[in-house]
Design a protein that fits this description.
Layout: H1 2-29, H2 46-53, E1 58-63, H3 70-83, E2 88-92, H4 93-96, H5 108-127, E3 131-135, H6 141-151, E4 156-161, H7 165-170, H8 176-181, E5 203-205, H9 212-226
Parallel strand pairs: 1-3, 1-4, 2-3, 4-5
Helix pairs in contact: 1-6, 3-9, 5-6
C-alpha cells in the first residue's frame, strides 16, 4: 500500500509540474492587441457594480464527462441564484456551439479555441458584475488553465463533476456513447478521446451519489461564503 501511495504521489508531482509548464506556455502564447488599439476606461468601477449587485463576480467552471450532469447542475444553480436576486447566466458548451462556436470541431486546436472564446465571454460578463456558470466538458488541463488565466484566479472556480463513466454512459439518453463506440462519432471524450481530471478543483461533485438539489446547493453555498456581500 505504501508503495502504491508513493507511486500515486509521484504521478501527482509530474502532473503538477506539467500543469505549471502549461500555464507558463499559455502566458507566453497570449497575444497583445495591436499597438494602435487603446483601452477605453469607463466611469463605473468594479466596486460600484459589486455594491449594486451585492456580490463579487465569479465564474463557476463545470468540467466533466458527457452525461456527468454539468448542464443540469448549471441551470438549477442559475435558478437558485436568480431566486436569491443574484444576476447570473449560463454559458453551456452545446448552446455555444449552436452560435458563437458553431465553426469549431473537436480537434485539439478547436477544443482549445472553444475554451478560449468561452472564457473571454465569461470575463466580459464578470466585468459587468454577473456570476457566470460555464458548463463544458473541457477535457484538457492546459485548456482549463487557459480559461483560468483569462478569467483571473480570484474569479475562477473549477468544479469537477466527477460522476463515474459507467453512470454517465448508462444515463446517456442521446445515445452518444453508443455511437462513439460504434465509430460513428470521432474524438468523443471518455471513449476515443482523453479526459484529464482536475488535480485540485475547488469542489468535486458526483451526481451519481448526490441529488441534484444538493449538488447545486453545494456550489451556491461556496459562492455565498466566498463572494456574497464581499467587495474587492
Amino acid at each position: 500500500m505504501k508503495a502504491f501511495v508513493r507511486e500515486q504521489e509521484a504521478v501527482s508531482d509530474v502532473a503538477s509540474r506539467a500543469a505549471a509548464d502549461a500555464l507558463e506556455a499559455i502566458q507566453e502564447e497570449r497575444q497583445l492587441p495591436p499597438s494602435n488599439v487603446f483601452w477605453q476606461q469607463g466611469k463605473v468601477s468594479p466596486t460600484n457594480r459589486q455594491a449594486l449587485f451585492g456580490h463579487r463576480p465569479a465564474t463557476i467552471w463545470l468540467t466533466g464527462l458527457s452525461g456527468a450532469g454539468k448542464s443540469t447542475i448549471a441551470f438549477e444553480l442559475e435558478r437558485q441564484l436568480l431566486t436569491d436576486g443574484r444576476p447570473c447566466f449560463v454559458l453551456d458548451g452545446d448552446n455555444l456551439r449552436h452560435h458563437l462556436n458553431r465553426d469549431l470541431g473537436f480537434s485539439a486546436d478547436d477544443r482549445r479555441e472553444n475554451i478560449r472564446r468561452t472564457a473571454e465571454v465569461a470575463l466580459l460578463m464578470n466585468e459587468a458584475g454577473l456570476i457566470v456558470i460555464c458548463s463544458l466538458i473541457s477535457p484538457y488541463r492546459d485548456n482549463r488553465a487557459l480559461a483560468k488565466e483569462i478569467i483571473g484566479e480570484k474569479r475562477f472556480i473549477e468544479v469537477y463533476v466527477s460522476t463515474a463513466p459507467e453512470v454517465c454512459e448508462a444515463r446517456d439518453v442521446k445515445g452518444l456513447y453508443a455511437k462513439a463506440r460504434a465509430g460513428k462519432i470521432a474524438s468523443f471524450t471518455g471513449v476515443s478521446s482523453l479526459y484529464e481530471a482536475p488535480l485540485a478543483p475547488a469542489l468535486a461533485i458526483d451526481t451519481g451519489a448526490i441529488p441534484l438539489a444538493d449538488s447545486s446547493r453545494a456550489i451556491f453555498d461556496h459562492l455565498a461564503k466566498e463572494f456574497f456581500g464581499a467587495l474587492d
